[in-house]
Amino acid sequence: MIAVEEAQARILKSLAKRTLSTEVIPIADGLYRVLGEPIHADLDVPPFDNSAMDGYAVRSDILSSPTPEHPIRLQIVGTSAAGHPLPAMGITPFQCYRIMTGAPIPEDADAVVQSEWTMADPTDNDVILVTRPVSKGLNIRRKGSDIPNGAPILRAGSRITPAITGILATLGKNLVSVYREPRIAIISTGDELIDVDQTPLPGQIRNSNAYALYAAVRSAGGSPILLPHTRDDLAAIIETLDQAAQYDVILTSGGVSVGDFDFVKQALDAHGTQDFWRVNMKPGKPMTFGHYRGTPLFGLPGNPVSALVTFELFVRPFIRQWQGDTEWARLVVPLPLLDDFDEISDRRHYVRCQIKNQEGVVGVTANPDQGSAIQTSWLSASGLMVIRENHGPSKKGTLVPVMLIS
Ligand code: AMP
Ligand code: MG
Prior knowledge:
Blueprint: H1 4-13, E1 22-26, E2 39-40, E3 50-51, E4 55-58, E5 72-80, E6 95-99, E7 111-114, E8 118-121, E9 124-130, E10 140-141, E11 152-154, H2 162-170, E12 175-179, E13 183-188, E14 193-194, E15 205-206, H3 208-220, E16 223-226, H4 234-244, E17 249-253, H5 264-271, E18 272-277, E19 281-282, E20 288-292, E21 295-300, H6 304-322, E22 332-336, E23 348-358, E24 361-366, E25 383-387, E26 399-404
Parallel strand pairs: 5-6, 13-16, 13-17, 14-15, 17-21, 19-23
Antiparallel strand pairs: 1-12, 2-11, 3-10, 4-6, 4-7, 5-9, 8-9, 18-20, 20-21, 22-26, 23-24, 23-25, 25-26
Helix pairs in contact: 1-6, 3-6, 4-5
The protein binds adenosine monophosphate (AMP) and magnesium ion (MG).
């Protein structure tokens, strides 16, 4: 049995010899893909000085001291609207332009006073009264202040979020290079399994792992392929694994414990190599990693909670890192326990937990039943509390590390 860190290190080390090709896709399809190229700006953003407010473009040098009682009168000489060219004429000190958000700043103006700081002149439509002092640069968004031309903006390995999609669009990258999504074959094993649309007969259960893992692969950025579930029979498992070996990664669920019908390990011994079996963790101890006919194989335990916890700790990092994602690691934050946590285990314990604000104290509380078959232990969980091996009972208020996963 090896430690979690050792298992993670071995899995990620096996990636050293593997590279993933890139493909070019339209940015609209890029959400959560990983950039395969660095992105540099080839223009200034914004491309011209423009107004951050609806108001009046003014010269600030004569506006250092107006008040509502003693406003300063300015003559309106025109309008600058978004999407229209810069007005041809500049302004003299007591002139101004009416200006809209996003419109270019006219020549000689060096500030925009927002409408709320002005009053209309009841006798003259072409005059406004400025009621507050205006400093130079007020409400002007300078050319290049967001992104200067030539700046390196995104590294290869950045995960494309909605915000990054917006930046790519601003920079005119309608096509981007992204890493291919690894194709991940999912096989569940067990004589007791039936598909979701069937009604269980005595002794049967629905195959939930196949679908949970399908969703987990998608959320980790892989491309899942569901293979038919396999009976507890060595020849049947080998037949399905042979089919699965054409994909980039094989995930199996079940059949890796020490029961009489646990054949995944035997199949791996027959046609592959087993890097390790059993990790010092709870849930998920029987987790196995190896290569079946050269294809990386994760043998996940059959218990539904164990399958997802081992996916989170071992498979997700593998998928993310393979795609060159530089920010794949989950954030681990120390949070105070909101209740005593008394369970002690000689294995590392990953406890489904909720982060709550309890009367102004933000802390963490374990979900009630932590059994490895209790799927409802995930409900409302925002992370996994990480309780060290042989760690004694912890009192309310103790800081515990929490891995954020939602
Ligand atoms: P195993 O790892 O095959 O010994 O299975 C451990 C437990 O997980 C048993 O109670 C199985 O019935 C259950 N199990 C195995 N595979 C699945 C699956 N695909 N979906 C739901 N439960 C499963
Ligand atoms: Mg089984």
